[in-house]
Amino acid sequence: xxxxxxxxxxxxxxxxxxxxxxxxxxxxxxxxxxxxxxxxxxxxxxxxxxxxxxxxxxxxxxxxxxxxxxxxxxxxxxxxxxxxxxxxxxxxxxxxxxxxxxxxxxxxxxxxxxxxxxxxxxxxxxxxxxxxxxxxxxxxxxxxxxxxxxxxxxxxxxxxxxxxxxxxxxxxxxxxxxxxxxxxxxxxxxxxxxxxxxxxxxxxxxxxxxxxxxxxxxxxxxxxxxxxxxxxxxxxxxxxxxxxxxxxxxxxxxxxxxxxxxxxxxxxxxxxxxxxxxxxxxxxxxxxxxxxxxxxxxxxx
Length: 301
Fold this sequence. Notes:
four-stranded antiparallel sheet; PH-domain like; five-stranded mixed sheet; alpha+beta; 54% helix
């Protein structure tokens, strides 16, 4: 059932992205109609290239594609909002509203849990099943959105300024914006590589935001996996993520190397800890429990 849902959402996203030239395109055309011919050509070419990149990402489910969609899908909504705000007075309002609706649908699908899990599994190996972990609380509101905005602005500002004929300012924008965009894109991609992974020999917690090294829990050592009651002593690897967490209980204490807080001058070093329970926060915890049951692991309700 979960696999079928993931496939349905995936192809829904691909279809919604495929028709963007018909939903978003006319509104962008109206917004660009008052600009110079050179600006129209550069902006139109850039928009078609970004659409093609997004279409490839939507059709090829990999972890890299997930990161690309997390950047490009919200950018379509931003473009639709700008087209609505800057449309000529004689342009039909319905065209701009359709653009916003189409872009909003693309963004909602691209940022959904089924898409996340489907795409991280597109890069999986053999008999393994990955589930994306939720964003740490410290990044959820503010840092991620700022990073996304800097990526988008960093990549598109230079070519847009060059199109106006301001060569020096455009070159400066590219020299500054593109390296910033590349660096932040790599950081954004790290958020797509935080997983709870089921493998034939057990369960792996792959999260370099919380751990120095990934943790393998052999299936013979797993006592149970289920909802966390928030009171049991154990090692919390959720990074304060919102929503209910899961707790994995093990029969004998395991050694884990958590990543220390990244505070300048704190002097805190990584120290191994032994624990008999680990808290994790996958985006689709219910799907995790269903898959654990399919793997014949003990599931605690």
